[in-house]
Queue: 2 jobs
Job 1
Amino acid sequence: MEATQQGSITTDLKNGIAIITFFHPAHNSLPGNLLAQFAKAITEAGENEAVKVLVIKSAGERTFCAGASFDELISLEDFDTGKAFFMGFANVINACRKCPKLIIGRVQGKAVGGGVGVASAVDYCLATKYASVKLSELAVGIGPFVVGPAVERKIGTSAMSQLAINATAWQTAQWAKEKGLYAEVYESVEDMDAAIEALTEKLLNSNPEAMRLLKKVFWEGTEHWDDLLETRAEMSGKLVLSDYSKNAIAKFKKN
């Protein structure tokens, strides 16, 4: 099986909680087929009347999400396929934005690029001390254009600029908490999971209509993101075709 066709998206529904788990053997990177399934799973959970709250997580103990699939990035040969790939991330972010239910993020390890975008697109994110963050896009000849609005909304322009410009540097989970990406950082996965269980239990006992309206208030001012993120996907879709990007991605893959 080709690397871009590997991985899975699963949804487990239990007692009103929809747990959406993504997995890919390459450090939970996200090729186009998984991104499409991911957005669909979020939308369907949001429309399911039995679901009161969502939890988004990845499988495994280490990397939360390595972002875009390098195997797919390096295979892109024309603007249409390039734009379509980056629209995958746009669709996941917009699915989180439009979901009428509150979404809790569980970040057990490092988040890179699109992984930072996913962590930014949830409504409340918990992490372990191992959940360092990095926006590596500039280092491979593009930029964090699609995830940028979600990241900037959550941590502000200054912090987002630090990540985007110093594209090869990791920032710690504590840094991410201080900037507002993470609500809390825990010493272990077990501690984080206990906190998520306690939080979701509280939310299950909260007024569903109040939570729906609260979610709507949180995302006020982002109604134009369908168009904005499509424009950003076009930027990345064009840049990724350049010789600079092709060479940079190939070099990154070897490291």
Job 2
Amino acid sequence: MKPTLLVLAAGMGSRYGGLKQMDGVGPHGEIIMDYSIEDAIRAGFGKVVFVIRHSFEQNFKQHINADHFGGRIAVEYVYQELDKLPAGFQVPEGREKPWGTNHAILMAKEVIHEPFAIINADDFYGRDAFMVMAQHLRSLEQSEGRYCMVGYRLENTLSENGTVSRGVCSTDAQGLLIGLTERTSIGRTPNGICYKEADGTMHPLAADTTVSMNLFGFTPDYFRESERLFVDFLREHGHELKSEYYIPWAVNSLIDEGYATMRVLQTSAQWFGVTYQEDRPMVVERLRKLHDAGEY
């Protein structure tokens, strides 16, 4: 069975301005998702599922559909909305945004029944990352609780135009994830790469620190287990207006419980993305060079 690719495309890109998933950055107007799906097809993925919002459904489907990819991969859509919650829970008054990346994953539980990878819609992950992921997912077909992720060097994931958030990975001698810590406000400083705590204190991070760029691989049991954890999350944080159910929180919980392991896969691929409007020229130039080199 071929693995599936789940694309998290429900975010409207508030920092960038507008629906950045539709921004043509390639030499012929290609959007970043075009490259991800092309790489996924070449790697042997059989289906792509897009998590979107009803508010931009028509615009999205007009651009992103099976015909757009030449019919080479099956396409489905699911919808992340604020009120899609487990039974017994309600949206607190005043909350405006959905519940984060792991909430987005749960939207696909009815349409994915095979090992799957997840990516952000507006990030370029590189062909080798999809090859490595697909190969590993094919080995997990009858497994439960044996997850994986592709790790990137921190220094290769930063923006020159502002700070970023990254999941910092800790691994054991076997390459299994011990913990995934979400660090925010990471950027280059005169003292090297640092992240800022909520209280304003700065802490250094090594340039070769392995970080997650939300390229994870799961087996279908992850829907069951992470929905169970979502109920726990809502009991504790469901009244809050801005709390988010992140993938690292769920993954850490399942590892701590002893239910799951997560192998950190190595890749030669280079990650890049448009975090800020000012990042766009760099992305355009990198993609032009890939076309010139015959990669696409």
